[in-house]
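Researcher: Please predict.
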Amino acid sequence: MTISSEDDMNAAEFALGTLDAGERATIAARRQREPDLDAAVKAWEALLSSLAETVPPISPPQDFLAAIMARMDGAVSAGNVADLARRLSRWRFGALAASGLAAALAVGIGLRETTRVEQPHEFVAVLQKSADSLAFMVTVNLDTRDLIVRPVAAPPQPDKSYELWIIDEKLGAPRSLGVIDAAHVTASPRLGSFDRAVVQGATYAVTVEPPGGSPDGKPSGAPVFVGKLIPTGK
């Protein structure tokens, strides 16, 4: 929708009902042949109607009509008419400014909603010795603590086993996440007992152990592949 700022103001005043009879008739006629202007009026009507729903109804005093008639009887002089015209102009400007503020708030709320950053759920760690020695990829879902290890280019270790460890100062000693297969995908539920923050911030490491894994629950040597989790955007 592309209309001028003046037409957008006219659309707002049309929706507010502050145009005089001639101006309103002109805009009504233009709406029949200008879809963009018609859409702008409908947009303002939708915005203002939603705001009106938040205002509780107020019943006018029973003698309100009599008071209006009395004030009208006193507004017959040219000076009073001019004063009323000035008041109406100020009221129209104030009403339009208020509607503009409401629109700005609506835009701000919409922008806040559309730019809200959703927390990632899935993370991946690339376990490697150096930049050109990618061995395993570890995928972790922080909500379910599901752990999946995919082999990439881990060299075979005859009569040995690869074992995965989680390392974090909050845990003290490294904790085993189990033996991993160098040829097939390995899934493990062992992260279920760890705190989410620990799982996300820990270092993941692979050591070479005797067949079946470490016999005493401790790494037998220094890690050969290490990595940390990074969000995948999911």
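Model: The chain has a mean pLDDT of 77.
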